[in-house]
Structures are given as C-alpha cells and as structure tokens.
Amino acid sequence: MSFRPMLVAAALVLAAGLSAPTSLAREAASSAGQRPDGAAIASANAQATDAGMEVLRKGGNAFDAAVAVSAALGLVEPESSGIGGGGFFLLRRASDGKVVFVDGRERAPLAATRDMFLDPATGEPRPRQTIDGPLAAAIPGLPAALVHVSKTYGRLPLAESLAPTIALAENGWTFGDKNLAMMGWREAALAADPGAAPLLLVDGKTPALGTRMRNPDYAEVLKRLGRDGFDGFYRGDIATRLVDGVRAAGGLWTLDDLAQYRVVEREPLVFQHRGKTVITAPPPSSGGIALAQTLQILDGYDWSKRSELDRLHLRIEAMRRAYRDRAVFLGDPDFVDVPVELLTNPAYAAGLRAGIHPEKATPSALLPGVTALERPDTTHFSIVDADGNIASVTQTVNLPYGNAMVIPGTGFLLNNEMDDFSVKAGVPNAFGLVGDDANAIAPGKRPLSSMTPTIVVGDDQIAVLGTPGGSRIISMVIQGVLALDAGASALEAAAEPRVHHQYLPDEVSIEKDALSPELRAGLEARGHVIKEEPRTWGNMQVVTWDLTDGDVDAGADPRWKTVGKGSTQDGGIFR
Ligand code: GLY
Predict the structure, then answer these.
(1) Are strands 565-570 and 379-384 parallel, antiparallel or unpaired?
(2) Ligand 1 centroid – CA 539 distance (Å)
(3) Is the CB of 396 inside a 6 Å radius of any atom of ligand 1?
(4) How far away, in angstroms, is 364 Cα from ligand 1 center?
(5) Helix-helix angle 237-248:216-228, to 10 degrees
(6) Cβ distance 557 to 540 under 8 Å?
(7) Cβ–Cβ < 8 Å for 508, 349
(8) Would residue 402 be called left, alpha or beta, if left means φ above 0 and alpha means ψ between -120 and 50 degrees?
(9) pTM of whole model > 0.85?
(10) Residue whose CB lies within 8 A of the most ligand 1 atoms, among 291, 449, 476, 502, for a mutation test
(11) Closest ligand 1 atom, CA of 448?
(12) Could you tell me if the CB of 419 is within 6 A of ligand 1?
C-alpha cells in the first residue's frame, strides 16, 4: 500500500465536498444549558482535588477550580507538571456551549536553533542535553495559561483560586507514593542541582513516604501571579531571576523570551464517533488527530458483531496507522502546515481501513514513517461543575521532575520539553524515509505533544478524560473512549488494562495480565508480537455526567489508588 496516493485520494474526496470536521464544533453546544446534580473532580493527587473542591465551595466555577487544581498539582506532584512547564486546557462553557482549547504549551527560546543539540563533529545528538539542565528547558506556558483561564473564563479573582495552594505550600504538603516512585529515576540529577536538592530532597536523598514538604518560594511566586497576573511571572523580579539563573548555568533564555510568551486560544478538534461528538486537542498536540483517525477507522466496522479478538486486532492496526501519521505530519501549526482536515476526515480513515487485513498484522516496516518515543510523565485532571461547565486539562514538565533544575528562590522545577522536539529533524530514519521535519526546533516554536485532554458529548452522557503517559496517552484515551462506549463507569474506564501499539517498535505492549492467554495466542497467530511489560502506565482521570438523571461520577486511576482522588459533591451546593 502506498501512502502518498492515499492522501491524494482523500484530498480529492474533500475537494468533492464532504464535510470538514471543524464545522462540527457548533454541535458541541447541543447539551448547553443542561445542569448536573453536582460537581465532580478527578485528579492525580487528593491534595489537588481538594484544592479544586475548595474553590468550587467558595463560588468558583470549573475554570477557577481548574486553575486551583493545576497550581496545586504543580506543588504536590512536581514530577509531573508545574509552573515551570506547560499545559492544555480544553474548556466547555455551559452558558453557550462554547468549546475552546487554551494552548499553554512551552515555546523554544528565541535563541534556539535547529541543530542546537547536535555535536558539530559527529552530527549526532549530545547525550542527555535535552533531558537534564538549562538547555533542556523551553519557556514555560502554564503560568500564562492560569492567568488567561482565570481572567477570561473564571468567576473568582486569580488570587482566590491560587489561595488553597499558597496555604498548602506554606503549611506543608505530604510526599506520597508516586512522588517517591518517580524520584527513583531522578534522584541523582536532583541532587546535583543546587536549587532542586534543598527543595525536594532530605540530606541529598529521596524523602521518606509521608514527609511534610514546605515550599514558601512557590507560595511567593503564586502570590505575585495572583497580584500582578502575567507580569508577575513573565516580567520583573521573577523573570530576571529565572533568566539570570538559566543563563548562569549555560542556557539561552532572555527576558524577551518571557515577555513575548503568549497562550494561544485554538479551536478544538471536533469529530463524530458512534453518534457522539468528541472534542479534543488540536496541534500542537498530536493526540486529537490520532484519536480521530483511530476511532474513525474503527467506526467503519460493525463493532458489536466482532469477536473480542477481532476488536483487539483492529484497534491495534488502527493505532499502528495513526501513530505512523503522527510522526510524519505533525508539528506546531504556527510554524508548519499541518493537514488537520485531511488527516481527520472520515474519507481518509476509510482509506486507511481499506489497508487493514482482517486477520493479519501489517508489519510496520510496510508503512513508511518515523518512530515516536514514549515519554513517561505528565498529569491530567477532569472537572464538571454544578452549572455544567467542563475543564479537561493535561499539563506537564515532560520527563519525571522535568530537567531536575530549580532556579534558587523560585520553588519550581523547569521542564525538559525541548526533548519533545525532533532534535535531528529531516534526517531519514533507519528505513531511509523522510524524518519528522515538521517538529524540528525553531525559535519560539512549540514542541509536538501527545497530551490529549478530551470531552465526549453523547445524548445520554458527557465524559471528560485524559491521562499522562507520553506517546501512550493516545492509546489510553482511545481505550477510555471505547470503554465508556461499552458502558464502563468513570472508574472502570480509568482502570481498563492497557494495550498499546505505536507503529514503532512494531510490538503490542501490554500491562501484566491485560490479555487472557486465549486472546494473546489469537493475536500472536495473526502475526502480532506481544510484549508484556513489568510495569503499569498512565494515570487516567475521568469524570462522567449522566444527562438523563444529572448524576456526576469521578474515577481516579486505581493504579495510584493511595494518591489520586475522584471527588463528587451532589445537591448542587456549589452553584
Ligand atoms: N511532554 C509530553 C507531551 O507533551 O506529550
């Protein structure tokens, strides 16, 4: 099967007048005006869920609560996200059904260059420079997103939404299971940084479970943000401290980088799936496009009549094709022309479907493209308030504990999002094929993300979901949507045993015992290589709102059951 001719064929179908998916955005408004019986929040950390609930109790809406949960996660889950990183806020306003994607993704510094991580002598990437230390950090976007979401969509002043986190930072938060598990990977890098070590370690070592952690510097930065808004972080003392600290360590940041940072409001990606409207992340996330492609490929099959083995086989084959396109076409839409309407058109999905053998795995080597690597951390939270406002938010500092660097006096880690760029763009891969040029480094550009905050609007239910997990985010959200289709509760959807294929490596990665011996043997007989992982992945947070009776439900991924928290409050007392 040849890839380019298929694109051309789909383009012709588009030109012939089939509907473009973006026009579906208006349909997302269909259940606007309905109200649930209460509010629900699911997040990866109970202290953050509680901060969001506190803000709802004070009269805040879902968007104020999103600001509260986001800021709190940055404190209590520093391995996953924070104001030194970025995030995507997918919002749906109840009053008019408006859906918007607030892109607070980090940007490359203005002095960044395409080959900045390559050794000029060898032309190869220098080891670890995109992972640890000052060059790895892109310009943070999350503080600007918090200001923007609060000001544009919130009901409370920003300072009030930040207050629970400020109190937590001053009075102390509790070091938990997940903080501990993720620190195993990063203890040495954190210990080597003069800002990170005193903030996050005890005597240079990982703190014991249950240690009370204080962070007055973070409280001070949040107070400035609450008081002065954008300028409180991106101009003035804090900006100067950040730039001086990064440059002293050998980085490229300038005051202009911070002053010029802007969030971008983008139109969410919207498509139809089994009679539901799926609202999800557009570029610079790759997630929404891959979600749309996979689900639209699967929608062409008579799903209920297929065996469990057939469904798994088809899901794997659909993911294989969507992940291949992710690597080839996607990048920051402000810099490269991403063919979104083409890639998400049902006619294009039909072309991909036609190439799937019903009973045989297609070797990925026959589908030219480039590899996409897994990135293990990030965090997601989902919120519905009692007015029906919705926030689906995924945020990140990239790898666990970001670049392991804290500028002294600031209280937060910087990200290592530069690693989400293709550091060797345009170079043909091992198969001699075109590399992911669309995601090459450029000054001010946003690196391609897999974060896929999603809202699914059906006649009977609205579901809000997302997860961390790097490239695995997309396959997990696909599984979450399919599980909800099949009637799973919020918790069951989050708990779903995970099965992943990302085109390359050409293997089906499964959690332990995710497949019965029969299913596994069946897939192997069809040519799939199964790799059972010794670990779990993801941390899915799901909220559902039953439109028939108003019930809300929250499911926090049970893989971290002592850490995350789904919380609901009914009776509408948060209105
Ligand atoms: N840094 C993880 C992602 O954005 O996909």
Answers:
(1) unpaired
(2) 14
(3) yes
(4) 23
(5) 130
(6) yes
(7) no
(8) left
(9) yes
(10) 449
(11) 4
(12) no
Closest ligand 1 atom, CA of 447?
A: 4
Q: Is the pLDDT of residue 25 over 50?
A: no
In angstroms, the Cα distances linking 108 to 168, 229, 258, 443, 507 are: 31, 22, 11, 6, 33
Closest-CA residue, ligand 1 atom 4, reads 449
DSSP code string of 256-280 = HHHHT---EEEPPEEEEETTEEEEE
Catalytic residue among 344, 378, 410, 544: 378
Q: Is 570 exposed, middle or buried (0-12, 13-18, 19+ CB in 10 A)?
A: middle
For residue range 306-338, what is the model confidence (pLDDT) as tens digits?
999 999 999 999 999 998 888 778 889 999 999
CA contacts within 13 A on the Cβ side of 296: 25
Q: What is the 467 CA–ligand 1 centroid distance (Å)?
A: 11
CB of residue 451 inside a 6 A radius of ligand 1? yes
Check pocket membership of 470 for ligand 1, CB cut-off 6 A.
Answer: yes
Mutate to test the pocket of ligand 1, among 450, 467, 472, 474 (most ligand atoms within 8 A of CB): 450
Distances (CA, A) of 212 to 183, 189, 200, 258, 550: 16, 22, 11, 32, 39
Binding site membership of 375 for ligand 1 (Cβ less than 6 Å): yes
Cβ–ligand 1 distance for 398 under 6 Å, the answer yes
Asked whether residue 138 carries a pLDDT value surpassing 70, the answer given is yes
Helix 216-228, helix 142-153: angle, nearest 10: 40
- Other Cβ atoms closer than 10 A to 366: 9
How many Cβ atoms are within 10 Å of 197's Cβ, its own excluded? Answer: 19
Atom 3, ligand 1: residue with shortest CA distance: 449
User: Does the structure show a pLDDT above 50 at 8?
Assistant: no
- Whole-number Å distance between alpha carbons of 81 and 182: 13
Provide CB contacts within 8 A for 361, sequence distance 6+.
313, 316, 317, 523, 526, 527, 528
The predicted structure's pLDDT at residue 425: 55
Residue 415 alpha carbon, nearest atom of ligand 1: 1
Q: Which two tokens stand for residue 556?
A: 């926090």
378: annotated active-site residue: yes
Closest CA to 196 of 133, 154, 287: 133
Q: How many residues does the chain have?
A: 575
Q: Are strands 508-510 and 499-500 parallel, antiparallel or unpaired?
A: antiparallel
**pLDDT per residue as tens digits for the range 155-194:** 999 999 999 999 999 999 999 999 999 998 899 999 999 9
Q: How far apart are CA 290 and CA 478, in angstroms?
A: 9
The per-residue pLDDT for 185 is 85
Any ligand 1 atom below 6 A from CB of 449: yes
DSSP 367: S
Report residue 554 as tokens: 């929250």
202-216, 318-332, 348-362: lowest mean pLDDT where?
Answer: 318-332
Indicate whether 429 pLDDT > 80: no
What does the DSSP assignment read for 121-173? TT-SBPTTTTTSSGGGPPBP-HHHHHHHHHHHH-SS-HHHHHHHHHHHHHH-E
Query: Ligand 1 centre from 378 Cα, in Å?
Result: 7
